[in-house]
């Protein structure tokens, strides 16, 4: 018969009872109660995206879906034959297929990754040359969905579009431009595009400042556009009127041209015999006006019609050119009168004196076809035959005084009658006509 005697050695761990199944059950219960360990529900499952065909608009086959719109303009620049505008574009509509249960009635916000899975309005910008959605650091798109199915769709866009400008009054012009929005695929039977809050749907950043324009008007309007193949479409308009700053162009174009015209009048007070002075002054003013006209034309769009600045600059150029023509007429009449006077003073004794034409002109300013000593000739004509046998030195010493008296009495009177009258009238007529032109021009365009 066998008997069992307990061992006095310490018990081995293999002989301990096992409690591991009980611990595993407690840990599983704890993990089950921890909501952070529960896999989240996907947005597609919550919004039932897989259960609907979002290639079709909401309420397909029924009345057109209303899509409200509002716009916040952040900047406007590069205004010429086109303009660039940066704006926040927001659309509002209701899609019951996206409704979801919520005890707190809180909306869900998504970024641009959900856009391709649901229906959104296909708005585009009419007459747009280039547009893009900002994508720093991701595409700037926001989608907000409410439990009842209302949707807010917002994106940040930069658009370059055409502006039907009229530069006929430049730089005293006012440009009226508009940015137009329209659905590309859905006509008015499927989609009704409208301003959500009327004219208040369009807002303008208060810090917008344009370098060349004042913003006179900024308004929203709507209308319809007809296409022969597809029908009528709702169209929204962002209208703005811009009046150009005149001060910059006055300093760069108008004021310098005025100075050049007035500078050309200085030649009317310069001696008619100072040919280099009057001619160089006239050519300088003509070339300066040409430079001003070229600079203005280079900075302007190339249009086929005449602008207000063209009228002013070209008429100013005409005044400068006429001042050069005026001196040409004065110089011609002066030379003609001198030639006539000098020809009348010639006599058979002129050939007795050896003075060439250049020396004679240096003495009296007359042009001579033959070598004549007018000083000696004038003395001979006044002193008579008794002085003809006197030494020639005596005639040369007394000649200048006699010649001066003679010119004052005869030749000077002829020259002043042809020259001084033209310059005198020019000093009055040129400024008077230019002042009248300025009053007419500024009054017409302002």
Automatic annotation (TrEMBL):
<dbReference type="InterPro" id="IPR006029">
    <property type="entry name" value="Neurotrans-gated_channel_TM"/>
</dbReference>
<keyword id="KW-0869">Chloride channel</keyword>
<keyword id="KW-0868">Chloride</keyword>
<feature type="region of interest" description="Disordered">
    <location>
        <begin position="1"/>
        <end position="20"/>
    </location>
</feature>
<keyword id="KW-0325">Glycoprotein</keyword>
<keyword id="KW-0813">Transport</keyword>
<feature type="compositionally biased region" description="Low complexity">
    <location>
        <begin position="1"/>
        <end position="18"/>
    </location>
</feature>
<dbReference type="GO" id="GO:0005254">
    <property type="term" value="F:chloride channel activity"/>
</dbReference>
<dbReference type="InterPro" id="IPR006201">
    <property type="entry name" value="Neur_channel"/>
</dbReference>
<keyword id="KW-0812">Transmembrane</keyword>
<dbReference type="InterPro" id="IPR036734">
    <property type="entry name" value="Neur_chan_lig-bd_sf"/>
</dbReference>
<dbReference type="InterPro" id="IPR006202">
    <property type="entry name" value="Neur_chan_lig-bd"/>
</dbReference>
<keyword id="KW-0406">Ion transport</keyword>
<dbReference type="GO" id="GO:0034707">
    <property type="term" value="C:chloride channel complex"/>
</dbReference>
<feature type="transmembrane region" description="Helical">
    <location>
        <begin position="279"/>
        <end position="299"/>
    </location>
</feature>
<dbReference type="GO" id="GO:0005230">
    <property type="term" value="F:extracellular ligand-gated monoatomic ion channel activity"/>
</dbReference>
<dbReference type="GO" id="GO:0045211">
    <property type="term" value="C:postsynaptic membrane"/>
</dbReference>
<dbReference type="GO" id="GO:0098982">
    <property type="term" value="C:GABA-ergic synapse"/>
</dbReference>
<keyword id="KW-1015">Disulfide bond</keyword>
<feature type="transmembrane region" description="Helical">
    <location>
        <begin position="246"/>
        <end position="267"/>
    </location>
</feature>
<dbReference type="InterPro" id="IPR038050">
    <property type="entry name" value="Neuro_actylchol_rec"/>
</dbReference>
<feature type="domain" description="Neurotransmitter-gated ion-channel transmembrane">
    <location>
        <begin position="254"/>
        <end position="335"/>
    </location>
</feature>
<feature type="domain" description="Neurotransmitter-gated ion-channel ligand-binding">
    <location>
        <begin position="49"/>
        <end position="245"/>
    </location>
</feature>
<keyword id="KW-0472">Membrane</keyword>
<dbReference type="InterPro" id="IPR006028">
    <property type="entry name" value="GABAA/Glycine_rcpt"/>
</dbReference>
<keyword id="KW-0770">Synapse</keyword>
<keyword id="KW-1133">Transmembrane helix</keyword>
<keyword id="KW-0732">Signal</keyword>
<keyword id="KW-0407">Ion channel</keyword>
<dbReference type="Pfam" id="PF02932">
    <property type="entry name" value="Neur_chan_memb"/>
</dbReference>
<keyword id="KW-1003">Cell membrane</keyword>
<dbReference type="GO" id="GO:0004888">
    <property type="term" value="F:transmembrane signaling receptor activity"/>
</dbReference>
<dbReference type="InterPro" id="IPR036719">
    <property type="entry name" value="Neuro-gated_channel_TM_sf"/>
</dbReference>
<dbReference type="Pfam" id="PF02931">
    <property type="entry name" value="Neur_chan_LBD"/>
</dbReference>
<keyword id="KW-0628">Postsynaptic cell membrane</keyword>
<feature type="transmembrane region" description="Helical">
    <location>
        <begin position="428"/>
        <end position="445"/>
    </location>
</feature>
<protein>
    <recommendedName>
        <fullName>GABA(C) receptor</fullName>
    </recommendedName>
</protein>
<feature type="transmembrane region" description="Helical">
    <location>
        <begin position="311"/>
        <end position="330"/>
    </location>
</feature>
